[in-house]
Amino acid sequence: MILDSAALGGRERYQLLTSLVVPRPIAWVSTRSPEGRRNLAPFSYFAAVSATPFLVSVSIGSRSGVDKDTLRNIRRTGAFCVNLATEPQLALMNDTAGEYGPEVDEFEHAGIASAEAERVDAPYVADCPAVLECRLFQVVELEGSPNTLVLGEVLRVRLSDDVPLAPGTLFADTAALRPVARLWGDLYATIGETPSLARPRV
Ligand SMILES: Cc1cc2nc3c(=O)[nH]c(=O)nc-3n(C[C@H](O)[C@H](O)[C@H](O)COP(=O)(O)O)c2cc1C
Is the pTM of this model over 0.70? Predict the structure, then answer.
């Protein structure tokens, strides 16, 4: 089958994109509005971008041309936390994905305990084993797209003592972290086998 993108509708491109670019880690993004309301929602258009500066990206869509709450808060406060979604939190994470209005505090709605980030003005998920405190680095408006790419600079990493590091490094133990990833639709993936292969020496 050959699929020419120009012959496809947006919905079809979305279906191909989200089922072929898999598995995607999930940034469970927490923010606060300038009025002080907490917000929490998952985003799987999430990627590592650069180590120096220390950057991650999240691509956030709009709802009928209006910024989602997360994007609106980040634009206004320049701050957010990426809580790395993990297996024990899968159901809670899903509870926060409803298209709730800006008046809804998803922490309260889903019964999730929050704590305060120290380097940025945003809450984080208190029980999340890995949290990235991010300052807005750049907003990239994507021409012709309802999505906006947000680049965040990680100012602080909060890592639970339950996630050991590989000896002598800052590589976090994947089996202990138990990250979940999104596939497509309602499907998620957990970490399966993790084969190790040395790179060819040239
Ligand atoms: C696992 C998962 C991943 C999602 N990924 C994205 C994403 O990458 N971009 C996006 O715009 N919406 C994504 N969504 C939908 C948002 O979470 C949803 O629109 C949410 O209501 C946005 O909340 P907010 O308005 O409080 O920011 C995802 C939903 C789920 C369940």
Answer: yes
